[in-house]
Amino acid sequence: MSLPSEIQRNPEPNRKKGPWTKLARQWDLQLMVIPAMLFIFVFSYIPMYGVLMAFQDYSLFRGFMNSPWVGFKHFVMFFEAPEFWTIMRNTLVISMLKLCIGFPAPILLALMLNEIGRRTFKRVIQTISYLPHFLSWVIVSGMIISILSTDNGSLNILLQKLNLIDEPINFMSEPKYFWGILTATNVWKEIGFSSIVYLAAIAGINPQLYEAASMDGASRVKQITAITIPSILPVVIVFLILAIGNLLNAGFEDILLLAGNPVLRDVSDVLDTYVYRIGIQNSRYSYATAAGLFKAVISVILLTLANYLARKSGNSLW
Amino acid sequence: MRLSSGDRLFIGSIYVFLVLLAFVAFYPFWNAAVISFNSGTDTMQGGVTFWPREFTLENYKVVFKDERLIDGFIISIFRTIVGTLLSVMATAILAYGISKPQLSGRNVYMVLCIITMYFSGGLIPSYLLIRELGLMNTFWVMVVPGIINVWNMIIFRTFFRGIPAGLEESARIDGSSNWGVLFRIVLPLSGPVIATLSLFTAVYHWNDWFAPSIYISNTDLLPIQTKLQQILNANIMLEQMQNVDAAAQGRMSAMRAVTTKSLSMATMMVATIPILLVYPFVQKYFVKGVLIGSLKE
């Protein structure tokens, strides 16, 4: 994040007046900024301070100011909870699956779209593949659940037509299918939209490189591996590093909506959904905040680590 | 340029693969539309895939007669318009102020904004804050907390800096204040960026179901996406029951042409129509929007 560099060339030099005079002279400009900053203070900074309730026994009646401080009690309780390891496993497995499959998929799509010569064909594919990104998770989950259901579910119809199964499978109530369904749905929703950045990176490659390569008789596959991929590698690395920083964000809305069936809880509960369930639904505010803070601390460590890696590769994030 | 046979095979298989991919991307949507136009009882017998077998508009009639759903649409439309106008306006004003080099405290303001992009209090403290502010169960809870969007502010600021200083100067000589310059010169010149950010904000407001689901318990105030989520959730429960007693369920539904499934598909379609209507415009702008966004990383 580059900070503005032209602060020095101040067009209205401060003629030895106090800061208050200066503020008063530009009151109309300050009036554009200060109300919005108060807003940010209330809706972003007060909750950040409120995180301290993880170290309290917060109760709605006593309020933040009067609730007793209990140190790390809730953290210890969370680490010792029987579900802790299940939640950590689910969080890491789901986010690794999303990373290993959801990350390369749009790159592959961009590489393939780049091989397409016909503009109309390319545009149609792009239009269709971007669309799911703009649908809400409610709609997307509704569609996916419908496709996978036993009641006129298309996937069951297809599998039965192919004689692969005799009885329709109730995909949404079998824990063993959940991770696959979740990963596939995410890829389905975001593959097109995420490919935009890579397509832009590919569009920036000097076309003469390809001309020279095909003169030398390089095949299309060879051109991809020798020119396209190395050229977009810096962009790929930046996004990969960002993804590592997000490793504990296994998903929230998608899991909440696709794992509506409580049978799936053993495989679907991740840190964020756990905080939601315990905090909002069971009103254990301090405990849930502690779990959330644990996640935030690990995330900051991961992000710092990711940025360190980025700096080493010459692509610092800030 | 002639292609070798190996290349032709390679590119041919890419075409085949992309056609398959487009099919997979589009099919869930298509199938949901087909079910919404098919008689619900007929759908229960299975086998409805590419085309309605017993075409009917009954599902849509039920949706449009259901006052709770209509109320949900009205709330969603209202929320989208109010939320987008307020957010884009307030964010643009902040961005213009911050884009001015003579603004004192500018760096502090900027850092305070950027910090919020990386850190947040998380779900529970935000939830309790909303409670304390008395915003629970009000329309404004869907609009107010997100009014200032730091991401959009940075995009606005980048755009405002690209506007030639001369244009602003001439207005200032004519006696315009900073606010006058913003509303008479800068904003009219910012059509494309306002359009892009408005579309993104509007899509967000239309699609958001989670905030109302935790902050609003009064069903009269729920937007359509949250109502739809509750309907779909009830359906999952129903399907579980159905597996227990399929025969009884079938007898019950046979009396109506409309089933919960066909009804929820029709509701889904109606909730998607506004997105489909703006999609061509969104598509025109979002590539630019995404690229501005990623350049700021």
Please explain how this structure is put together.
The complex is a heterodimer of chains A (318) and B (297). With 318 residues, chain A is mainly alpha-helical. Chain A contains 16 helices and no strands. In chain A, helix 4 (73-80) crosses helix 16. In chain A, 36% of the residues are buried. Mean pLDDT of chain A is 86; it is low at 1-11. Chain B is an all-alpha fold. Chain B has helices spanning 5-36, 40-44, 58-65, 67-99, 106-118, 123-132, 150-161, 165-173, 178-189, 191-207, 210-215, 224-244, 246-254, 260-295. In chain B, helix 4 packs across helix 12, helix 8 (165-173) crosses helix 9 (178-189) and helix 12 (224-244) crosses helix 13. Chain B is globular and about 75 Å long. At the A-B interface, helix 1, helix 2, helix 6, helix 7 and helix 8 of A face helix 1, helix 4, helix 5, helix 6 and helix 9 of B. Chain A: Keywords: Cell membrane, Membrane, Transmembrane, Transmembrane helix, Transport. Chain A: InterPro entries: MetI-like, MetI-like_sf, UgpAE/MalFG_permease. Chain A: One of its GO terms (biological process) is transmembrane transport. Chain A: The chain crosses the membrane at residues 31-55, 92-113, 134-157, 177-203, 224-248, 285-310.
Detail the topology: elements first, then pairings:
The complex is a heterodimer of chains A (318) and B (297).
Chain A lengths: L18 H7 L1 H24 L12 H4 L6 H8 L3 H19 L1 H11 L4 H12 L6 H12 L5 H8 L13 H29 L3 H9 L4 H26 L7 H6 L6 H4 L2 H11 L3 H28 L6
Helix pairs in contact in A: 4-16, 5-10, 6-10, 7-10, 10-12, 12-16, 15-16
Chain B lengths: L4 H32 L3 H5 L13 H8 L1 H33 L6 H13 L4 H10 L17 H12 L3 H9 L4 H12 L1 H17 L2 H6 L8 H21 L1 H9 L5 H36 L2
Helix pairs in contact in B: 1-14, 3-14, 4-7, 4-10, 4-12, 8-9, 10-14, 12-13, 12-14
GO biological process, one term (chain A): transmembrane transport
Protein name (chain A): ABC transporter permease subunit
Family (chain A): Belongs to the binding-protein-dependent transport system permease family.
